[in-house]
Amino acid sequence: MKKQYDKKRVVLNLILIAASVALLIYANENMSFYSKRIINLCAVYAIMGLSMNLINGFTGMFSLGSAGFMAIGAYAVAIFTVPVDVRAEVFYLQPMWPLIANIHIGFLPAMILGGFLSAIAAFLIGFPVLRLRGDYLAIATLGFSEIIRIAFTNLQTVTNGPLGIKYIPSFDEIWWPVGVAIVTTVFMFLLIKSTYGRAFKAIREDEIAAEAMGINLFKHKMLSFVISGFMAGMGGALMAGILGTIDPKQFLFTLTYNFLLIIVLGGMGSISGTIISSVIVTAGLEWLRIADEPMIMFGYHIPMFRPGFRMVVFSILLMAIVLFFSKGLMGTKELSWELLGNWYKRQRARFIKKDPSLKGGGSK
Amino acid sequence: MDFPTFFQHLSNGISLGSLYALIAVGYTMVYGILRLINFAHGDIFMMAMYFAFFSITLFHLPWYIAIVVVILITSVLGMLIEAAAYRPLRDAPKTSVLISAIGVSFLLENLATYIFSGKPKSFPEFTYMTSTVQFGPVSVQRVSLLTPVVTLAALAILLYIINRTKLGMAMRAVSKDYETARVMGIKINRVIAATFAIGSGLAAIGAIMWGVKYIRIEPMMGVMPGLKCFIAAVIGGIGNPVGAVLGGFILGMGEVLLVAFISQLTGWRDAFAFVALILVLLIRPTGIMGEKTTEKV
Amino acid sequence: MNQALKTMVPVLETKNITMRFGGVVAVNDLSIQVNQGEIVALIGPNGAGKTTAFNVITGVYTPTSGDVLLKGESITGLLPDKITQKGVARTFQNIRLFKNLTVYENILIAKHLRFKADFMSATLQLPHARRMEKQMHTDTELLINRLGLQSVKNEIASSLPYGQQRHLEIARALATEPELLLLDEPAAGMNPQETDELTAFIREIKNEYNLTVFMIEHHMDLVMEISDRIYVLDFGVLIAEGNPDQVQNNPKVIEAYLGVEEDA
User: Fold this and answer.
1) Residues in Cβ contact with A19 at an 8 Å cutoff, skipping those fewer than 6 apart
2) What is the four-CA torsion angle of A41, A186, A138, B37, rounded to 10 degrees?
3) Distance (Å, rounded) from C-alpha B151 to C-alpha B157?
């Protein structure tokens, strides 16, 4: 019985993968620059959402440091991938620090470097802050995120200060962001499925009991924090590669709220929920741009639609989810064929109840 | 640095510190009762400044009426936020309430940007208050002299309310043991609403003086002072109003004097509070005047 | 039957431990000894410092002074997880299960401390990690079947009836493969029938897994029936020790529980 079901699942998974790959190739070939950028942003937001969910949803710590870790990754790419010959033009106020002025590496090593630097930062920050509980941890991580940003604003010869860095070689294809997002997702699934993932969940459920079961709290919290930092660094690196220009203002701690919305909407402690909601939020934010444009309906100019309205709607949505759907889309569940199957059956049952004539029509 | 310059900086530090203190009290009171970082508090402060701006420029209220009106409206705003965003989550996990607080903060910022536009406005000029008094070689703005006085007076009134009135007793009971207070027949929601009203009112007083002194108003201006004042409350020992005032003074003076003495650190000014926070959390997590609590196993 | 008295190998010793919280002395100069294979109970009125003593032994608190020895080796001041790794497992007065996880996961998590591969090998399912993971599942299945939890294996822990949650908490403690099991009021809130079942259960697992048991308990029926020896704590001070008969007839104990006669 079970074997048969597994086979069915493998087939379904293969179909899904094939369909996704085909769709992505199609998208990459035929979509406009703008649409591809949205896909890329979705991918980065998915990575950031996963990074944040690992700490907040799976390990039960409330961290608000994502923006800072993202900045580290983004600057690693910005500093090391800008071609050497245009650097003088970028750093026109003060020349670049001679030690790094001539180091140039490709995007992939820069991205990985960004991940590692961010992970190292997480490790160093983790020592003082991971002993803190709940909201204290939130404010301390937020503080570190700001300190990182302030440092980048002031390290003129390394980061070009508040002016930011431009001429970062950017890509208009979707392979880097989407590829990294897929790898990250698979990695997260495996990690959470492993005994370490279960230890994280144990800490989320009850720290004291977890410790009494022989789980070293500090070590595991640190592990989760560092892995999350690595992911956020990669996310930032991709962001720099997508935008081509970065400055410290982009990494204000309010950026973290976007990722917070994603994990709250998707479900704290759900990987698939994070992916779904990162698409919804990113695409939604783009779509909501119409809210910032003047709108004319039936010949009337609707006064509400003007710049700024988009973010108002966005924040009201965040509030509504917290207040009325605190579990988000998925809660701590994962999307699976079983779940979809059950949902389909339930919907069908409801349908049939309403209209009994359909009963014979269903297969099997 | 010569003496007059030092004194100049010191008076700036004291006046900034007393403004921080007024806002920090709001954080500490809410935390004491709900164990919640009211992320929206800094934005309530920002809204108060816009209220003051409009009541003077748009409605041409004389300043003494404007002050009262602004304090009242801000208090009502604080209570509304509590009722809409925190009360429904009374029995929800702490994280949900914290996220809700972040949501409110974000909403207020975006709402302010939308309604008042992101462009900075100038607070109505208050020549008497911004004019200076000479103390020998040192000149100090009148508002800078006024702020510490107002802050200490507000603290005195607050301590009277907390220690000598029935409302204060209820507040102390709720902050000690929420459940028991509820069982003892204390109307929790009313006490919490009063706490928000008082905290927001103090933020409004701070906002008016801030506006007079620093003039510039913009939608995101509550963010940094908000964070710093929460940090001030932590430094002083969260839950303790005297500690919050102390923390506010320490932070305000530290920030101003640090930059005054080491001018290379000007760009790092905002990082000072965060560094201070992390040091305090490491060395003495309960802050200067906080009580030690241990979790029951 | 009382083999414990014959062998007398101390598993747990506390030497003059004192635990102070500010001005309050919760445990004062407590010295006890629990020998291999014994079931020893720690009793005393509410607020006597029993749970504090447990928390000191399991590393939740570091004692203000004194020493805790496990098989002769000092474990004073070690973190709880280290102490658990050394073979001490515990349950809690107010049940602390991983509430939103299944019974199976609760027990599986308690096997984590015996997992010796790093997170990368575990995530990437490298052969040695895979082997250990498989072993964890086998052991968990075995324990679940052995302790009669198979019918609720996939239930969420918090959905179990109260008695069964207590049962699961003990099972989870056993999964860490302890030599010494500390039970903090295992029969709290149980009716007489459940208490009887629990008594039998504790005896059974003690023999099956070669355990030494140290427990806090208020149900005197259970304590008197099951314990080899009893320590009595009052206001943080040890006031009596001995076998159930000796303790039952000790005037000091009667006084602590019932108050001095003149007062009554």
Assistant:
1) none
2) 80
3) 10
Instruction: Provide the strand spans (E) within chain A.
Output: 295-297, 300-302
> Does one domain contain both C71 and C106?
no
CA–CA min distance A138, chain B (Å) = 9
A190 at the C interface (CB within 8 A)? yes
Amino acid, res. C155: E
Q: Cβ(C217)–Cβ(C185) under 8 Å? A: yes
The answer to whether the CB of B137 falls within 8 A of the CB of B4 is yes
Q: How many domains does chain C have?
A: 2
- How far is it, in rounded angstroms, from Cα A187 to Cα B287? 41
CB contact under 8 A, B294 and C22: no
Of the candidates C148, C177, C206, which is a domain's last residue?
C177
Looking at residue B86, the DSSP 8-state letter turns out to be: I
| CB distance A135 to B239 below 8 Å | no
d(CA C181, CA C203): 12
Task: Quote the domain boundaries for residue C231.
Answer: 1-87+178-264
Q: How far apart are CA C119 and CA C132, in angstroms?
A: 13
What is the Cα–Cα distance from B150 to B19, expressed in whole angstroms? 9
| DSSP character at residue C23 | T
Are C133 and A196 within 8 A, CB to CB? Answer: no
As a whole number of angstroms, the distance between CA A288 and CA A295 comes to: 12
Q: Which helix (H) or strand (E) holds C83?
A: helix C80-85
Each residue's pLDDT tens digit in chain C (264 positions)? 455 455 578 999 999 999 998 888 999 999 999 999 999 999 998 888 999 999 999 999 999 999 999 999 999 999 999 999 999 999 999 999 999 999 999 999 999 999 999 999 999 999 999 999 999 999 999 999 999 899 999 999 999 998 899 999 999 999 999 999 999 999 988 888 889 989 999 999 999 999 999 999 988 888 999 999 999 999 999 999 999 999 988 888 888 877 654 443
Cβ distance C21 to B294 less than 8 Å, yes or no, reads yes
Is residue C109 located within the same domain as residue C46? no
Neighbouring chains of B at 3+ CB pairs within 8 Å?
Answer: A, C
Measured distance CA(A16)–CA(A19) in Å, rounded: 5
Q: Is residue C92 part of a domain?
A: no
Tell whether C40 and C82 lie within a shared domain: yes
Burial grade of B138 (CB within 10 A; 0-12, 13-18, 19 or more) = middle
The H or E element spanning position B139 is: strand B138-141
Same domain, C148 and C198: no
Tell me the pTM. 0.90
Strands A295-297 and A300-302, bridge-based pairing: antiparallel
